[in-house]
Amino acid sequence: MEYELCNMKYQKKKSLTRLFHVPCSMFHRGFSLVEVVVGTSLILLSLTGLTTAYSFYLKAGLTNMDNLKSAFLLQEGVEAVTLMRDDAWSNLSSLPVDTAYYLSWNGAKWATSTTEVLVDTIFTRTVKLSSVYRKTAGQDIVDVSAPDPKALDGNAKKLVVSVSWGAAPNRHEREMVTYLTNLFE
Prior knowledge:
single chain; alpha+beta; seven-stranded antiparallel beta sheet; two-stranded antiparallel sheet; 32% helix; elongated
């Protein structure tokens, strides 16, 4: 009888199984190529997923920051025009209506200009004043094209503050609309 060394033990060889016998050393070689490829592909898929998720959340965070800045710039624009109104109603009533103005801080107070002013090098903020019409019966504010009898209110202005940023295909714009009245004169 023949004996062979397998797993550090001597085992008896069977003559019938000799055709289908696989040497013991093949089962103890380590990882096969298929296992290495599957393991590597799983690791790469996980890293790709994590990188994609991180990139998505980073872009969303930056977009959210621009939206937040634009909301603050809109509020600041309304407050700036309100301060101009508080200084003197003539600061607003003397401006031509339906003209886009840019706000700038001159060190002491807010001023309007028709020259474009960039805020934080990417945001453009415009301010537009419009005339206000009221119904003659009831004093409700109506559009100029409304069929109701109306009259121009010289002591009120419609204020539209707009903030825009970004390039042409991805241009963003936000607006805030409010009304200002002559409170102090």
